[in-house]
Every structure is written in C-alpha cells, then in structure tokens.
Amino acid sequence: MEILQQLSTTAQVWAEAEEFIRLFHRENPGSGDPRDRLAAVRQELEDTGTYRHTHEELVHGARVAWRNSNRCIGRLYWNSLRVRDRRELTGGDEIAAECFEHLRDATNGGRVRPTITVFAPETPDRPGPLIWSEQLIRYAGYGDHPSVTVGDPRNRELTEALRERGWPGGPGTPFDLLPLVVQGCDDKPRWFEVPADAVLEVPIEHPDDDHWTDWGLRWHAVPAISNMCLEIGGIHYPAAPFNGWYMGTEIGARNLGDEDRYHLLPGVARRMGLDTSNDRSLWKDRALVELNRAVLHSFDRAGVTIADHHTESRRFLTHLEREERRGREVGADWSWIVPPISGSATPVFHRTYEDRQQNPAYVHHEGAEDRARGRDLV
Ligand code: ARG
C-alpha cells in the first residue's frame, strides 16, 4: 500500500515537474533544450522521491507564482521579485533570524523592495518548516472580545495563545509587536521576539489636522505574508515569506477601518465633526477618504514606499496588456482586485476577469488559518 502511494505521489510530482521545467525553458530562452534537464529530474525523482530546483528555477518559479496570484493587483513588477535562497535552513531559530534579516533587507530604509526568502522544502522523509504567523509583522490584540480589544482584534486569539505559552506580553499599546511563531522541521512551534530594528513603522498624521498626531496611530511599512506555501513544479516550500509594498487602502480602509479590526471610522468622524446619527450624511464614506489621505500622506512624509489605488489600478491594466502581448493569460479575482474604496473610479472595476488557477502558485494549506490564530499552539 505504502509503495503504491509513493508511486502515485511520484507520478504526480513528475507531471507537475515536467510542466514547470518546460515553462522555465520556454520563458528563459538562454537555458537551452529542456530534454537534458527533464531526464535528470526524472532520474532524481526515481532515486529519491523528490528533486532539487536549480537556483535559476527557484527564482523564476517564485516570480511566476507571484504572476499567478489572482488576488494581487500589484503584479506588474513580478519579474523583479528578489529571491533569497535559504533552502539549507530547517531549524526554527535560524529561520526566525533570517526572517528578521528579510525584513531589514526588504524595508531598505523605506524604499521597500519586493522580496521572498525560501526555506527548506518538504521532502519524502521530513515535513518542511512552517511559519505559523500570517505575516512577519503583526500587532497584538488584548481583551476577551473583539469589541473591547486593545490592538488588532484579528490577532486576539494568537495573542492569548502566546501569553498562555509564556510570552510576557508587550507594553499594552494598540500597536505592540507580536513575536514570530516558527516551527522547524521535526520540531514544535516556538516564538521569537521580533527585534525593533527589523521593523519600520510610520506614525499616521493628517495633512490638514494637527490633532491626529496626538492620537498615536501608526502602521508598519512592510506587509510580509508568511503562511502561504510556495509550490513550484510539484515541490512544496511551506516556509517562504514574501513581501511587496502596501497599497494605501489596505491600511486606511481595511486594517484601520473595518469594524472587526481597528474600527476607527467613528473616531475619525468625531474628529471631523460629522453627524454620525444618520447613514445618509455619508459620514463613514467621508471618514474613509480622510483616513486614506492620512495614510498616504504619512507614508510619503516618512519616505516609505506606498501605492495609491488609482496608480496601482492603472499599473494592473498595463500588466494585463503586457502579458497578453506575450501570449499569456492572466487570471484575476475581481472581488480582490477592485479596491475597497472608490472602486468604480478605478479602471479595474469596469471589466471582468477569468479566475483561472495556474502553477507555480502561493497556496494556503489546510490548517494555515488555525495556526495563524494560535490554535493548538503547544
Ligand atoms: N492586506 C494585508 C495587510 O494589510 C497585506 C497583503 C499583501 N499586500 C501587499 N501589498 N503585498 O497587511
């Protein structure tokens, strides 16, 4: 039974490997005839049940996985993703240390650089490492209910689980850094305090209202997703944190605005003196716009890369045209591509997309959400 199962997984890996190797050679004309490489991969698979990507295959695979991310509006620059090849690392502490180095490197003093760090793959004889945290940088959420939470309610359960596992907690501000949770191969998950010098943050202020400064709002410069599995040609890299730069609405509309996140629209409206007793004053809409202006203004002032949703929408259409010219189909998920404010004022709203899944890809594996919430943290 086991042998049969092994055979069928090998067949599956081979099918995906073959497709990827052909794609790699098609898109990298300098890389020659794929036949030799295909034969070598096939032999390695038969001998070991897995195969090792060349550095160039890994780089291209990670970039194409970005190109295939149907929910991402920022794909125009997919081919310039910087790839840090750390496949030799399997231990929790060395992986955590490299994640922090990733942050320093990607932050680049504010000129944010899209970057991925790839750690050890899964193999037939051991699982790959895992980063439980959904992003390298997360803010704690304290309190037993979303509505009374200090900090980010999204991370409430993780914060509580960490405290039960010995994390002393932060100073108790709404923006305390959570430790990073990493599980090495054949190890249990452990937490690592994120060094302050690895995290650049931007104080949020409003261009026309000085009082916002006293409010103490802030957000971090770099969004680095860390709980998606990079899949290339049948090989799984479960720990492969990657980052781009922020689009303002992610922070100004969703993170700070959503009712189950920082829920700041009532506070913004109060500061603006708006009538919040009636939906039809459009106080939420007006507060959203000002919050988003504040985010863009603050990042600009701090010299930190951030895109606005109008520019990023135009870039996405350029990406579609460019890919079409190269004869490639771009999959996209309308409900994720269209910005959460002023959708119809951006060109990405006024068309449809094919939400077709292609490989290589970044994939949420089963249990990723539970792990990010700290469920079953041992
Ligand atoms: N929306 C997420 C956040 O607000 C980040 C997702 C990735 N975003 C990006 N611009 N690459 O933290």
UniProtKB/TrEMBL annotation:
Homodimer. Its EC number is 1.14.14.47. Residues 71-78 form the Nitric oxide synthase (NOS) domain. Its cofactor is heme. This is Nitric oxide synthase oxygenase. Catalyzes the production of nitric oxide. Heme binds at residue 72. It comes from Streptomyces venezuelae. InterPro entries: Nitric_oxide_synthase_Oase-su, NOS, NOS_dom_1, NOS_dom_2, NOS_dom_3, NOS_N, NOS_N_sf. Belongs to the NOS family. Bacterial NOS oxygenase subfamily. Transmembrane segments: none annotated. Keywords: Heme, Iron, Metal-binding, Oxidoreductase. This protein is similar to the oxygenase domain of eukaryotic nitric oxide synthases but lacks the reductase domain which, in eukaryotes, is responsible for transfer of electrons to the ferric heme during nitric oxide synthesis. CDD domains: NOS_oxygenase. It is an enzyme of class 1 (oxidoreductase). GO terms for molecular function: heme binding; metal ion binding; nitric-oxide synthase activity. It comes from the Bacteria. The keyword Nucleus does not apply. GO terms for biological process: nitric oxide biosynthetic process. It catalyses: 3 reduced [flavodoxin] + 2 L-arginine + 4 O2 = 3 oxidized [flavodoxin] + 2 L-citrulline + 2 nitric oxide + 4 H2O + 5 H(+).
